[in-house]
Amino acid sequence: MSLPHRRRWIRIVCMILIALLYIASVPWYRDDSAPLKLWLGLPDWVTVAVLCYVGVAILNAVAWSVTEVPDTTDSIADERGAAG
Q: What pLDDT shows up at residue 29?
């Protein structure tokens, strides 16, 4: 597998995991009558949501780190040099 192809797959996997983390961050799994449990000093559903958002931030950083972003200033300088 070539490097650009591998980067594309890493980015796709990160986006899928981000979507799953967003789904997991919503406390849809909790029963209204469930007793309050504290994790890290917060209600359990808040702790799960915060940890999911931290995971999203990390995966987003990974996805951006493998994404090639062209430097537009180089192409602008090339165009000006060719035109002048």
A: 80
